[in-house]
Amino acid sequence: MQRFCFALDLVDDPELIREYENHHSPSNDWPEVTKNDIDAGIINLQIYRTGNRMFMIMDTDDDFTFEKKAALDAMIPKVQEWEKLMWKYQVPLPWAKEGEKWVLMDQIFQSGAKKAK
Question: Which PANTHER family match (predicted)?
Fold first, then answer.
């Protein structure tokens, strides 16, 4: 298993943040997007928020690659529709590359008996 952690900001507007969270509620699931994530090798995906800052934990199988995920995303119109909709709410971090939303974070510390490789 692989683990990736990402950060992203939301537009700092309480109503838009409420809408964004509503889009991510279980009752508003987009099955094509979820299936695409599973097909890409994503085992577990969690998003946390504080203020307008978001943090995402993504656990994947060992065969997952960002290139494979991008290729699958490009083939599914519903995934493209979802991503376009999410740009209404999302603000790239100042150091994000052009067109990049979620920025991959570097692990700088881990405590406990099992250390990351």
Answer: UPF0734 PROTEIN DDB_G0273871/DDB_G0273177, UPF0734 PROTEIN DDB_G0273871_DDB_G0273177
Taking only the tens place, the pLDDT of each residue in 95-108 is 999 989 999 999 99
Number of domains in the chain: 1
Token pair in block for residue 69: 């995920």
Question: Within 13 Å and on the Cβ side, how many CA atoms surround 106?
Answer: 1
**pLDDT tens for residues 58-92?**
999 999 999 999 999 999 999 999 999 999 999 99
Closest CA to 53 of 111, 105, 99, 97: 105
- Cα–Cα distance list, 74 to 20, 24, 36, 51, 107 (Å): 22, 21, 10, 31, 29
Angle between helices 77-86 and 31-40 (to 10 degrees): 110
Q: Give the residues across from 58 on adjacent strands.
A: 4, 45
